[in-house]
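User: Please predict the structure of the protein below. I'd like the answer in structure-token form so I can feed it into my own downstream comparison script.

Assistant: Understood. Taking the following sequence of 284 residues as input:
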Amino acid sequence: MNFHRPPHTFVGQVELKVMDLERSLTFYQEIIGFKVLEKTESKALLTADGKNPLLIIEQPANVTTKEPRRTGLYHFAILLPTREDLGKVLLHLIQNNIPLGASDHLVSEALYLDDPDGNGIEIYADRPAETWDWNNGEVKMVTEPLDGQGVLEEGKGQPWTGLPSDTLMGHIHLHVSELKKTEEYYTNGLGFEVVTRYGGQVLFISTGGYHHHIGLNTWNGVGAPPTPENSVGLKWFTLVLPSEEVRQKTISQLKDIGAFVREEDGIVETKDPSENKIRLVVVE
């Protein structure tokens, strides 16, 4: 089952602010495996399939380094088609001496790393959806050690050749300042459903029964301030809606709860209660 196409709502693109565009381009091409779709002096659009941008990196004027204990990006998550692909990536990262975290979440197997500016990245492969354990509308997720040897064996020692063309932006995980208003915004405003809660500090939300399209946590502290406008970090991400009718309904729901919505030059932008910016787009 594909959770990243209509009728579901899902994350499409992520735009990051970086300190040094050329340094980041080298990393995202040689270590992560993106291809450059378009490039200017200050911005690059990165793709897996050669047609559709998944990640945009920009070096703003007067950019400043990442500040600790702020809201904003925890990580964006690149979804690979198969466990075999994950095995190839793992071998590639090990061969390049990249510092890694790794976890088994039952629903998926994941690798964690940072880009040169400290922006968090997850690279993961899902287990088959029919193996996920649901109980009373919540999916069971854990954080256990990854069977790294098993993942490597799945890759069969095959050479890494970059990201597969059917790689997706699987989800995004955000630092937020609190959870009550945040939950209202994402559920009543954007139409997501809560699928997992962890200890009063984390919400996982999705549409269509995915394990999560968005993660939300208060690990940087309740009341954490937003990331400054010119700081390294998340600029915005897109939510892909299944139709213009759904987008207009979503805009109305956001306005009903008093959320920020701006429509300008065909771009619909909203902000969650922690100032994380989201663009609402319609699937093409």
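That's the full token string. The chain has five helices and 19 strands.
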